[in-house]
Write a structure and sequence with these properties.
Elements (H helix, E strand, L loop, with lengths): L2 H5 L3 E3 L10 E4 L7 E11 L2 E8 L5
Protein name: Protein DsrB
Pfam families: DSRB (PF10781)
Length: 60
């Protein structure tokens, strides 16, 4: 499985390729609908790629 396929299980970009900072994505949540957000940071590790996503409707 490629990094792009592996990462898209939780967050998906509209273009279904490697996500970049400022890309609009949707994030899968436990038992709920996908939630829209924006990628704030991307960090590459030997185990894969980690994305920091700001959700539009994150409750405070």
């Amino acid at each position: 499985m490629s990094d792009a396929e592996n990462c898209s299980t939780l967050a998906q970009s509209d273009r279904r390729k490697m996500m970049k900072v400022n890309d609009r994505v949707t994030v899968k949540t436990d038992g709920g609908p996908r939630r829209p957000g924006v990628v704030l940071a991307v960090e590459e590790f030997s185990e894969g790629t980690m994305y920091l996503v700001s959700l539009e409707d994150y409750p405070l």
